[in-house]
Task: structure prediction
Amino acid sequence: MLDPAALFLDQAEHSPHVQFIYDLQAQRVVFVNAAYERLLRGHRAQVNEELPALLARLHPDDLPLWRHYWRMWQTGSLHDDLEVRLCSGGEPNQWLCLTPHQYQKSAEQRWVSGSLRDVTVDKEYKQNTDEFNTKKNTVLEILSHDLAGAFIMLQQLTEYVQEEMGEPANPKVPEMLALMRQTSQKSVAMIHDLVEQEFLEAASIPLKRERVDLGERVEKCLDPFRRVPSNAARQLICMLPDEPLYAEVDVNKLLQVVTNLVNNAFKFTPDEGHIEVRVESCTDCVRIVVADEGIGIPEAMLPRVFERFTPARRPGLRGEPTTGLGLSLCHTIVRLHQGTLTVQSTEGKGSTFTIELPTTLSAQG
Result:
């Protein structure tokens, strides 16, 4: 007759992931499979003796997170998968994902079991993908700014020539000028539609949260702005906290918001102006601030800035177009993170947009 317990133990023993059972009363590991030796390079017969040294290898930034969830597990409150880094003495950090489960037979008999798997390759792939998407989104924003600006300039020059030109010797010249103007208009609309569609599609996808160092990710997303020649006349400053600042966010969506706010700052800041991006920690939130020395927003329009197709929309200083959708979508994405997006502005002096995200469990000690 099939013994379910024996079948389970056999499956656990041959699993490629570490399977374990921890006795909360005795504070000892009572079972660990052979994968422990392969994945964590220990000796399963000595797992309890090796456990303190193993925990000491947790990345310092992940220790508060581990301690918080360990207290939760001991009281019977289980969280979804927990991802932490294990330091390996000069080698790249090893990412581990722990899926816990609790079993309680009586008040005195309680166990935490679970599966521990190596997700280092997955994390590296995800980070590379995130960085690619961030660069892609930033390039799209820059494309809408610079390339569209060139077509707008061509359109304006064409209109000027049409107005100043007398009776042309060649009757085809007006036709060619009209074609240039129409082509410029269509090109600007196409570029703008492409960027807006990308933002709309991204905003409609459910959040995929992960724990990230906000300062590191924000700094990287600003790099493409610094490389654009037309941005050189304005100074972009990034101020980060001294220590890593972690939050559980959908990093692709959040950085789209930051990119959009920075792009807007470039649009409305005259040459020689400053644009400042700050990542800060406060008592109960993490904060990202984008401030500029631009033309500002009329006081009467401030309450309607985040409306779809807001009446506050206007072209940039260099003729860049806008539909008024960008800030509305930014506001939506921040709200999906249970955060707030606010603006302070003085006409003629500049604007400051502030993203505040609630302190997550990962930020608690």
